[in-house]
Every structure is written in structure tokens, then in C-alpha cells.
Input
Amino acid sequence: MIGVFSPKNKRIFVMLFFIIIAFIALGIFLALSADIDTRFGGYIFIVLAIFLFSFVFVGAYYRLSWSVRVDDKKLYVKHLLQKQKVFNHADIDDVIAYRQAEFGFGTLCIYLKDGTSVLVHGLLNYIELATYVKKFLPLIKKKEYDVSRMEKDYIDKKKKNGRLIWTVVLLCVAIAVAIALAIILTSGKNMNDFTQNDFIVIYIFIGIFISLLAVIFIPLVKLLRDSNIINSSLPLIYQAKCYCAPLPANDIIAIYVSLDYSPRTIITCNNLNPKEFFCIYEGFMYWRGKFVSFSEVSERYGSYSELIKKEKFKTGSIEVTQAFIDN
Output
């Protein structure tokens, strides 16, 4: 089975690269001008374009996957500028897939037994791939999870990401302040009218400007890298909650979980009337700094076959009833 990638995923980066090329072309055009003010603006455009190119390239490195294939109990993944990675089914601890609603495609999270993970973004058939790989993997056991520790680690990572975002914002403010100070200290004059002191101010400003851009690049790269780590840890928490959350008191017939483990579906029958069947949908989400749970009960059905026919939980879900019984 071969992974099918959404053209949107690569189209975004291609569009950004064309915008950067336009910035560079404009910068070169301005830099060739006879007017010194225009030339200076051209140099600024070129510096900004180089910075944006570096950032977009790193983003493409973390977000683009060029190929993924599942064959003979092996998973083959090829990323940008990396050699093809081959994972045997014995190397894989679990596979989780989830949809990125804002983009219309999905992500395949491959969790390895050495504690690392590989994320494949931009897939259209992420559910089919995850379902196929799941066939070769053993069911997860409840005792392997420490939900409270996992939640705490995730929240700590989110807070760290928040601090990185504020760092980027403050550095951008510092650049704006440096520009304002340069204009004030040179009295807003044209560069043709600059004195020697004005040129010293501009040279200092250029040094500060380039230094701040270089410094901003560090937290931005960390944000891209850490976002992958955070995105891969959230489905694991939902998985842990699915397996560790208490079950209802009714007689349980079957349990299904979606491939991103939110929500789980519990098919039960009424203890007072064994001929009545219904589904309990239990979901988990991260909302405003904490994890919350929600549940919804479907209408009651007179037969199990009627419930299976009308309820839509089976698409993109796997049955894990035996795992809950064993736990």
C-alpha cells in the first residue's frame, strides 16, 4: 500500500518559495538603483528574503514527506534530504492517524519501541495506512500507561512552546524599536544627506538588525521541531485515556476506538431490557490548558444489527474489545 499525499501540502511551500524568489528579485532590482536610499531598501529586502527562505526550508524539512509505503510487514518512509527509513513490524510500538481539519489531510504517527516517533504529514489515505499497519501490531495493554504523568509532560511542553512564541514576539518588537531609533537618531533624513555620525548609526542598526534576525531563527526552528513532538504526544494521551477510563456499568458488547483514539465507542445493551442496544461515544480533548472528557449516548435500537447499520462509528475505527477484557 502506497501513501497518497495531498497536493495542498507541497503547494503551500512551493507558493512560499515563489514569493521569496520575488522578494529576492525585487531586492536585486532596488540594489542596482542609482539612488542610495533605494539601494539600501534593496539590501534589506535581500536580507529578509534569505531569512524567510531559511525558515521555509526548515519548515519543509519538518513538514514534507516524499513517500511512504507499507509492504510485507515493513513500513518505508522517505523524508526531505533523508535516506529512506525502513521499519519492521517488530520495530513499531504503535501507529496513530489523525485528520488535520484546517488543511483537509491527515498525519500518520509512527511510534517506535526505542521511544522515538516519525510523523508523516499531508496524507489523504492516512486511515487506510494506519489500519493496514495495525493488523501486524499487538493490542495495547492498559498497565503501560501513566495518564497523569503524560498529561503533565504535554502541558509542560505546551508552556515551553508558549514561552518560545513570546520570545519571537519580543524579538520582533526589538527589531521594530531598533528601526524607530535609527529613524529618530538620523532625523529621518535621506541617505544622501547623511553625516558621518548618521552612517555610524545606520551601520550599528544593520548589525543589530541582522543579529536579531539570526537570534529569531533559533526559537522559530525550535517551534517547528517541538510542534512535531507535541503533535505526536497528544494522540498517545487520548489512547491512554481510552484504555484507562472506567467503563459504564451496562453489559458491554463491543468497544471501538478511532485511529486517533478520540472518541471511543462503547456498544452496550440495557441491563433492564437486554433487547435494547445503544452506543456511548466518549471523547477527549485538550481545551484551555487542561484535558476534558465528554460523552454522548445514541438513541436506543431494538436490535444489534439495526445499531450497526445506522451508527457511523466504524469508519476509521478498530475494535479493541479483547484488549479491555484482558485489562
Observations:
- The two ends are 32 Å apart (CA to CA).
- The first strand starts at residue 65 and ends at 71.
- The chain has a mean pLDDT of 79.
